[in-house]
């Protein structure tokens, strides 16, 4: 094994230091140990590499076996290092392929110092390990068909609440609940039968829920509805709801008078204006429906609420303007070009257009004032507020009324040219112009509301503000993968990956503990099992402290930024 040793006398001292650790499964070392007995070397001992997991080989010492050497090896096997015997237990054999010269150089004794690392036995939890899982009382009663009285005898554990309105709530160990369910129902088969029975009852209830609602409505109609007025009515007395209701009333009247003028004059431009007012009235009625639905409270099916209903209504409104307004105006203008007809007196048409200009202008001013107030409230300019479609309902009214005012001017100009020249083509061109204007408005509405429904990010300045607040917290090292989405109605959903400082979190935990008691517990640790129990106890508490830090950051982020309604901080 060491050829150079074969040519050296026995009084030479050799030491080989091995400074690295290695698994014996990767390094197959064989140690030759022997001594001179009657002039021959008689023992070969190999270390099997499957008996230990890891060895720290610090030194291998070789000594002369001559009697006059002070460092001579022991004369018998009984003096071999006990630690080496415990680890390097192997079968002794005499090799037959070694020469006498080589054996003379290998007559030596070795002292091996071995360090074995203590490793806890790995736990096999399995794919469905639920022994330490917690379950709430509601889930225990629903999933395991238990009663509140059945849960009173089980172990109760107070845990940190995930809800903002409560600090803590009671949970149970899932293993205890499962054992209690088997005790109550007798077997898993009986429990499954009860679950299926309850599912059938739930299905029947869902089928009859519509009939129950009808009966409740009839009961209210008969006895009178004593329930307080809904907050939905208040939404139409201020803000975007007020703008929409004013627009519905004015556009409805405009449609009626424009329709009479078209019947009297037969003007293509007047027909386009009548269709324009009808489209505006229908679309704004749709906006009113969207506003009433957007203020509904979140439910189990829609946990983030119904604020996007305004964008959906505005999107449908844009499509309606394109189909009804632009489509019919283009159609009537093209037919007027292909089949021109003489136009009767336009005096009444001018009077009605003048009245429409005043009424549409009044509605436009109401929408402009409302957008100015909202833009000032959010700290943005009028143009940015409109382009970002922060309030889709008011935007639709603004754009529709602006298009209506421009459409009245275009229709009046084309009808005036027709009156002066007697050429009906100018009137048809006016119809095409109004249709093009409506098509442009509808395209803008479709684009902006589609962007909002896809989940548009808030402004970079706002994202930077939220990120800096989190990064300035001592418990946070870094923020990654930030996503801040505008949910509509000035509601923001914020999500980020947070790299927490474990030292700060641990200090936060230790500040609430009795340090002397912890030191005493550490001194009592003598075995790996006691160490494991100590670490498991404090490790779980530190994880709870980390969760409390997440809750604190989410709460402070909402308090400092009221527009942030939903915060999802994920631990990195």
Describe, in plain words, how this protein is organized in 3D.
It is a multi-pass membrane protein. It is found in: Endoplasmic reticulum; Mitochondrion membrane; Nucleus. Its main location: endoplasmic reticulum. The chain has 572 residues and is mainly alpha-helical. It folds into 3 domains: 130-223, Alpha-Beta Complex (Nucleotide Excision Repair Protein XPA (XPA-MBD), B Chain A); 235-454, Cation efflux protein transmembrane domain (Alpha-lytic protease prodomain-like, Up-down Bundle), CATH 1.20.1510.10; 460-571, Alpha-Beta Plaits (2-Layer Sandwich). 56% of the residues lie in helices and 11% in strands. It is built from 18 helices and 15 strands. It has helices spanning 82-87, 100-105, 137-143, 148-151, 174-185, 188-223, 232-235, 239-265, 268-294, 309-338, 347-378, 382-387, 392-421, 425-453, 460-471, 502-510, 515-523, 528-560, and strands spanning 14-16, 21-22, 36-37, 40-41, 44-45, 55-56, 60-62, 92-93, 110-112, 134-136, 157-160, 168-173, 476-488, 491-500, 564-571. The strands form 6 sheets. Strands 1-7-9 form a 3-stranded antiparallel β-sheet, with no helix packed on it. The protein is elongated.
């Amino acid at each position: 094994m060491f050829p150079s040793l074969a040519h050296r006398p026995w009084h030479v001292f050799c030491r080989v230091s091995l400074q690295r650790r290695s698994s014996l499964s990767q390094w197959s070392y064989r140690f030759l140990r022997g001594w001179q007995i009657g002039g021959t070397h008689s023992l070969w001992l190999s270390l099997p590499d499957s008996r230990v997991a890891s060895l720290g080989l610090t030194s291998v010492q070789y000594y002369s076996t001559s009697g006059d050497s002070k460092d001579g090896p022991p004369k018998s096997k009984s003096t071999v290092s006990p630690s080496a015997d415990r680890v390097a237990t192997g079968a002794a054999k005499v090799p037959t392929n070694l020469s006498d010269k080589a054996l003379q150089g290998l007559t030596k004794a070795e002292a091996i110092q071995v360090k074995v690392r203590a490793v806890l036995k790995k736990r096999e939890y399995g794919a469905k390990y639920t022994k330490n899982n917690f379950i709430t009382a509601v889930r225990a009663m629903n999933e395991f068909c238990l009663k509140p009285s059945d849960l009173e005898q089980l172990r109760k554990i107070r845990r940190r609440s995930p809800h903002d309105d409560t600090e803590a709530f009671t949970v149970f160990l899932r293993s205890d609940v499962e054992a209690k369910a088997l005790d109550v129902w007798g077997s898993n088969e009986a429990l499954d039968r009860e679950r299926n029975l309850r599912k059938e009852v739930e299905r029947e209830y869902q089928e009859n829920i519509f009939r129950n609602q009808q009966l409740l409505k009839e009961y209210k109609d008969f006895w009178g509805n004593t329930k307080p007025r809904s907050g939905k009515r208040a939404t139409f007395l201020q803000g975007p709801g007020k703008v929409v209701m004013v627009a519905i009333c004015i556009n409805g009247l405009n449609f009626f008078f424009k329709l009479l003028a078209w019947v009297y004059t037969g003007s293509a431009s007047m027909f386009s204006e009548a269709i324009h007012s009808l489209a505006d009235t229908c679309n704004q009625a749709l906006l009113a429906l969207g506003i009433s639905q957007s203020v509904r409270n979140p439910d189990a099916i829609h946990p983030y609420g119904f604020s996007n209903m305004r964008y959906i209504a505005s999107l449908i409104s844009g499509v309606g303007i394109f189909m009804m307004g632009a489509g019919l105006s283009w159609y009537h203008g093209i037919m007027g070009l292909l089949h021109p007809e003489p136009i009767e007196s336009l005096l009444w048409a001018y009077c009605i257009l003048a009245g429409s200009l005043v009424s549409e202008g009044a509605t436009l001013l109401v929408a402009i004032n409302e957008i100015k107030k909202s833009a000032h409230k959010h700290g943005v300019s009028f143009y940015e507020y409109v382009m970002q479609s922060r309030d889709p309902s008011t935007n639709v009214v603004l754009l529709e009324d602006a298009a209506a005012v421009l459409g009245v001017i275009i229709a009046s100009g084309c009808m005036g040219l027709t009156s002066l020249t007697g050429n009906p083509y100018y009137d048809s061109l006016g119809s095409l112009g109004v249709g093009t204007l409506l098509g442009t408005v509808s395209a803008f509405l479709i684009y902006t509301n589609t962007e909002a429904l896809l989940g548009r990010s808030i402004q970079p300045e706002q994202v930077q503000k939220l990120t800096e607040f989190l990064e300035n917290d001592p418990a946070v090292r870094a923020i990654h993968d930030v996503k801040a989405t505008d949910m509509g109605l000035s509601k923001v959903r914020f999500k980020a990956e947070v790299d927490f400082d474990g030292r700060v979190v641990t200090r936060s935990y230790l500040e609430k503990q009795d340090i002397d008691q912890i030191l005493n517990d550490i001194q009592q640790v003598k075995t790996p099992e006691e160490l494991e129990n100590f670490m498991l106890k404090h490790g779980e508490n530190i994880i709870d402290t980390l969760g409390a830090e997440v809750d604190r950051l989410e709460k402070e982020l909402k308090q400092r930024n009221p527009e942030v309604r939903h915060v999802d901080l994920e631990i990195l």
